[in-house]
Amino acid sequence: MIKGIFPIDKFETVETPFYYYDLGLLKQTLTTVNLLAGSFGYHVHYALKANANKRLLPLIAQAGLGADCVSGGEVNAAVEAGFSSEKIVFAGVGKADWEIKSGLDNHIFSFNVESIPELEVINQFATEKGVVASIALRINPNVDAHTHHYITTGLNENKFGFNMEDMEKVIRLLPTLNHVQLIGIHFHIGSQITDMVPFQNLCVRVNEIQDYFEAKGVRLDHINVGGGLGINYEHPNHIPLADFESYFNVFHKHLQLRPHQTLHFELGRAIVASCGSLITKTLYVKEGTTKQFVIVDAGMTDLIRPALYQAYHHIENISSEAPLKQYDVVGPICESSDTFGTDRMLNETKRGDYIALRSAGAYGEIMASQYNLRKLPGVYYSE
Ligand SMILES: *Cc1c(COP(=O)(O)O)cnc(C)c1O
After folding, report:
1. CB of 363 within 8 A of CB of 305?
2. Does residue 89 have its Cβ closer than 6 Å to ligand 1?
3. Is any ligand 1 atom within 6 A of the Cβ of residue 271?
4. pLDDT, tens digit, for every residue of 70-88?
């Protein structure tokens, strides 16, 4: 519970808004992940795109996790933060030349390749550098992360990954590319998934795809099932951790790994979302005719998730113990989507009160912008 624990008095002279990271909670999350994934021998790569904060990354690297990168900048940040390059995977439909070259120079564990032309370009640059690139094929499993039903293979065109119809061609091409080595297959079905059924469906699909490769005589040492495990945004105080136990158990129960195979995960949100809060100050309480607005000094430039996809963040007034009242909590940006929450119950709020937007550790700070020429939010830590 952040109320009562967040040391408001320590921050009285500090400019708002700012991100506040509970490093203790991050460490607790990492310990839990290591314990559960470790019990099955699974490998977890942290998806840097959720948060590449310079204090957080080394903690995650020190816990032994690998890194999942989607740009050359992320590969560099991962190396700098101390992630071992043998644990870096690199995905993305549009890897630029310098990004591929940087991945090769860093001898990363795997390029998660998404198209035939990319495969050819990686082979070309690896040939020029006299190295062999390890690659995994990103396959579009056609598993719907939201409705829990299969989408019929071949119906949907998606910019991500290969469709299974491309596989014949890829399998014929691979032996002609002497500087790439196929080490596995890669999947990623979506994000903020809290229902285990889509993951179970993914397992079923991966099992079928494994049978396909086996029948073709293609050996795969690594299966990477991506990320997407969600957290509970409604109850950050009671359910601070993602349900890692159910998650890993689903794969243990439903995925048929071959004895020589290693299973990999790419978790972003589930690792860092809970440990971050955006702390903002109330500028004005505006009385409307039917609504009351709490106008805070943070906006969509600091935390874009509510404006971008109507995401829910739990909101607390951490300065007040007064009775609850209903408010819309809005930012100062000249966009009506700059609203953090509507009809929220907060302790009666007045100018100057600190408001915490909870579970903002993932896709928060990293997506902050200077739109309206605003300052970027500050960053503080519990330690
Ligand atoms: C975004 C992404 C992830 C992480 O997703 P989360 O929902 O944050 O766990 C993992 N793998 C790939 C390829 C991604 O694009």
Report:
1. yes
2. no
3. no
4. 999 999 999 999 999 999 9
Residue bearing tokens 């990320």: 227
Same domain? 168 vs 249: yes
- pLDDT tier for residue 21 given thresholds of 50, 70 and 90: very high
What CATH number is given to the structural domain containing 72? 3.20.20.10
Number of independent structural domains in the chain: 2
Task: Enter the pTM of the model.
Answer: 0.95
Which residues touch 250 (CB under 8 Å, ≥6 apart)? 196, 199, 200, 203
- The reply to whether ligand 1 has any atom less than 6 angstroms from the CB of 68 is yes
Ligand 1 center–CA 202 separation, angstroms: 15
Give, rounded to a whole angstrom, the gap between the first and last alpha carbons of the chain. Answer: 17
Q: Does 43 share its domain with 9?
A: no
Evaluate: CB of 92 within 6 angstroms of ligand 1.
no
170-174 own/partner pairs: CB under 8 Å, 24+ apart: 170/116, 170/119, 170/137, 171/216, 171/218, 173/116, 173/119, 174/119
Ligand 1 close to Cβ of residue 47 (< 6 A): yes
Give residue-wise pLDDT tens across range 169-199.
999 999 999 999 999 999 999 999 999 999 9
**CATH assignment at residue 376:** 2.40.37.10
